[in-house]
Amino acid sequence: MPIGTDGHTVKDSTCDGQLLFSNELLQTIFNSLSAHIAILDESGTILETNAAWKNFSLANGLPEDFDFRQMNYLNVCETASGENVEESRAVAQGIRAVMHGEITEFLHDYPCHSPEGPRWFYMRVVLMHKNGPKRVIVSHEDITQLKLTQEALTENQHHLNDKNQSLKEANVALKVLLHQREQDKADMEKKFLVNVKTLIMPYIDKLKQERLNERQSTLVNIVGDHLTDIISPMVQNFSNAGVMLTPQEMQVASLVKDGKTTAEIAEILFVAEATVSFHRKNLRNKLGIRNRQANLRSFLLSMSQ
């Protein structure tokens, strides 16, 4: 189907009979295609180009009356020089492979940048399956937007990969910091316990040996008992279980564990018995003691083990 070269028409059979399409109609269709198309003969000589091919050449500096016909496209590719020489020769080899029937089509995308910006084209070479002289169709489709989109997606993927790597590194660093924090916390608790045992408790013991009245003796004993509670497993178990007690709730818990009654605790802490009962109720709620028959003191003693 050499367009505009030998004056032939193409027949299209339909159920209503035969319709004859003139070269003028075929040329109109040929020129309406967006791809830049050239038709080559068996030697690689250009027989015809469409309007898109001519318009592209005109936009890139060729004169308006420039005629591509009779130019050998293969020779242009094989004698090309400059930075794209290898690519041009690969194109020529691909066209020859199609001509010789070694492959059914040759596909190739390539950059063709201009001063106005980057451009890419997609090249497709196929053999015209038609009786008569061998003809090859070479088409170039502008795929710049597709390439720019692909590059943007690739760049975004690299950006996401970098962020993912940064998050992984930050996660590792955070784990190290948390581990160090736990170690520092354990060291601080150990130092605190040692200081209470070695720097405070000896003086409490000396005070107990002094001649104190009953009330003074009771207060000293309470201070000693509370300090013992602070360094005892019960307080640590409260912390480990996530139970947060107020200072007075801690005082009530310690005295309940020691077997003191509500009245005795009220007298020791200088508060009303109703206040002690209120704290006892809060302790049961915070410790999750739902059964009214469960003994608060027994529970607190179990946490001191």
Automatic annotation (TrEMBL):
Gene Ontology MF terms in the entry: DNA binding
CDD domains according to UniProt: LuxR_C_like
Residue runs in coiled coils: none
Every HTH luxR-type domain range: 238-303
Keywords, ordered alphabetically: DNA-binding, Transcription, Transcription regulation
Annotated GO biological process: regulation of DNA-templated transcription
PROSITE patterns: HTH_LUXR_1, HTH_LUXR_2
Gene3D superfamilies: PAS domain, Winged helix-like DNA-binding domain superfamily/Winged helix DNA-binding domain
Pfam family name, one: PAS_4
Full protein name: Regulatory protein
Organism: Desulforapulum autotrophicum (strain ATCC 43914 / DSM 3382 / VKM B-1955 / HRM2) (Desulfobacterium autotrophicum)
Lineage: Bacteria, Pseudomonadati, Thermodesulfobacteriota, Desulfobacteria, Desulfobacterales
